[in-house]
Design brief:
It contains twelve helices and 15 strands. The chain is α+β, with helices and mostly antiparallel strands. Strands 1, 2, 3, 4, 5, 6, 9 and 15 form an eight-stranded mixed beta sheet that branches. Strands 8-10-11-12-13-7-14 form a seven-stranded mixed beta sheet, with helices on both faces.
């Protein structure tokens, strides 16, 4: 076996590795843009794309690695994002070689992974990599927009006799039982000061300066124009994302970002709220932005609106709409820092507000 750095030419071989392991690989342009258009690397800064393990010229293992900038307490931090850690079953013992190589990088303030599964999360814990210490990262808050989606969402891929009939029957029963709750979100918010935003432009640079001052005690992915365009560009181009702004006296007081997430196995199309930032009137502004997203998702014929991650405060705003709660298999967010001061801060949940805008959580959607 040979361990070496990932090159641009490896894409097709890595894609085949993903396919052998029943995983979806993003398209080449999207994959290459993780580095070629990454704002942290536009100054020709060198960065390793990751590492692969080869056996007889076949890639049997891969771990990806791209940078993101974060901000906390007036300081900028370089974060290494773990992406696409996959190893063929026959070579699983080599998984440790890849992950140890990844964590051996120098000049990184902290490492972040947001897509771990049950098996890989156990490896993280064995290596003393820490879970992001935020309550309820192992659950989603759900607003159901179509009654037929209730059973599909909670039963998932389970098979049993007469499934379609039973699913339809119980959907009707649950719709009757939960009618008030299913429609509770309606008329609980105002869109008077809410505007749709179709372009990420210079106003987000101005807004980021305000966010850094207002939210300086929260670890935040850099949300200026160049970083948001890099991260959300593919979704906006395919019209699978939308943004809402909250304005007061012609000043932006907050914004939200929602993207499309399709579960083809369950046949459910979700609107996933991945960002919610407010600068004042926190409760009212947040409530109106969330409500606007639910309304837009219904207009676009989505099955559900999903709210994953976030801190207690932001989740409390979502709970104003009486959502259902779905337990996930695990908290898939893990981090590690070699910076002792930063590591001490990150061990406290008050510095976190993690969502699916962080790490690679939306990369493979």
């Amino acid at each position: 076996m040979i361990l070496r750095k990932v090159s641009k030419k490896d894409y097709n071989k890595v894609r085949k590795l993903f396919k052998r392991n029943q995983l979806k690989m993003i398209k080449f342009n999207r994959w290459n843009d993780l580095w070629s258009r990454n704002p942290a690397l536009l100054n020709k800064k060198k960065w390793i794309r990751g590492w692969v393990i080869e056996e007889n010229k076949v890639i049997v293992g891969h771990i990806g690695n791209f940078p993101m900038y974060y901000f906390l307490n007036g300081k900028n931090y370089i974060c290494s994002i773990l992406n696409g850690w996959v190893v063929d079953k026959k070579f699983r013992s080599a998984s440790m070689i890849l992950i140890k190589k990844y964590f051996s990088q120098l000049n990184i303030d902290f490492f972040l992974g947001t897509s771990f599964g049950l098996k890989t999360s156990k490896i993280m814990e064995a290596l003393n990599v820490k879970k992001v210490p935020v309550e309820d990262l192992d659950s989603s808050l759900i607003i159901i927009l179509k009654s037929s989606s209730i059973i599909k969402f909670f039963l998932g891929n389970k098979t049993f006799p007469f499934k379609n009939f039973i699913t339809s029957f119980f959907s009707i029963i649950l719709t009757i039982l939960f009618k008030k709750r299913l429609n509770y979100w309606e008329n609980k918010f105002s869109t008077q000061n809410i505007e749709s935003c179709n372009i990420i432009d210079n106003k987000f640079d101005h807004l980021w300066k305000k966010i850094k001052l207002k939210k300086k005690n929260t670890l935040l992915f850099q949300r200026d124009k160049k970083w948001l365009k890099w991260h959300l560009g593919p979704f906006l181009k395919d019209k699978k994302a939308w943004l809402f702004l909250s304005k007061k006296n012609n000043e932006i007081t907050g914004y939200s970002i929602c993207i499309e997430k399709v579960n083809f196995k369950k046949k459910i199309k979700s609107a996933l709220i991945i960002d919610l930032i407010t600068l004042n009137d926190f409760k009212e502004t947040s409530k109106n932005l969330i409500g606007a997203n639910i309304q837009e998702a219904k207009r676009r014929n989505y099955d559900i609106v999903e709210f994953r991650g976030f801190n207690k405060e932001n989740r409390s705003y979502m709970k104003l709409f009486k959502p259902f709660k779905k337990k996930l298999k695990l908290n898939s967010f893990y981090y590690k820092s070699k910076n002792k001061k930063l590591d001490k801060l990150l061990s406290n949940d008050k510095y976190w507000n993690p969502s699916y805008i962080d790490g690679d959580a939306i990369i493979n959607i």
